[in-house]
Amino acid sequence: MSVVQDKYLIRVSDDIPSLEECNTFVSDPSCGAISSFVGITRDNFQNKKVIMLSYEGYVPMAEKELKKLCVEANEKFASIKRIAIVHILGDCPVEAASVIICASSPHRREAMHCVEFLIDELKARIPIWKREIYEDGDGESVWKENVEWHEGKQRRVMVKVER
Q1: 150 marked ligand binding residue
Q2: Model confidence over 51-76: pLDDT tens digits?
Q3: With helix as H, strand as E and coil as C, how does the chain read?
Q4: Where does substrate bind (predicted)?
Q5: Residue 87 is labelled as binding a ligand
Q6: pTM of the predicted model, to two decimals?
Q7: Per CATH, which fold does 3-157 belong to?
């Protein structure tokens, strides 16, 4: 596990901690709230049967950017005690977790808003790419771009082109 300053658990790997492990990391006796988000692979997209997602990324850069994001979240939500943010690389079958985010704080509101901020910003800024693999017999797959909202506008980010 990559732990930064005992305040952040950050990991981008083919083997990520479980939700329980992330919750345990962020747990603190001074906190009455732990908020979490788990992103899982769904089995469909636009009438196509998805059999798995596959993720790629440059781990040192992704983890460095996740640390910056955690620091930013801590500045924005001052009462946050600890944050765990982990993302899988490689294949992620249907119903498996690809990303887990947990945050603890003395009260629920900051923990909930922090987790929402973290997942939105992760999708918009962190260099991790996703390929959807479909069950259509010929191994069809599509690299997906992240399109996220920022300041009320939809923006395109992180596009990986296959050549």
Answers
A1: no
A2: 999 999 999 999 999 999 999 999 99
A3: CCEECCCEEEEEECCCCCHHHHHHHHCCCCCCEEEEEEEECCCEECCEEEEEEEEEECHHHHHHHHHHHHHHHHHHCCCCCEEEEEEECEEEECCCEEEEEEEEECCHHHHHHHHHHHHHHHHHHCCEEEEEEECCCCCCEEEECEEEEECCEEEEECCCCCC
A4: 107-108, 123, 130-132
A5: no
A6: 0.86
A7: Aldehyde Oxidoreductase; domain 3 (3.90.1170)
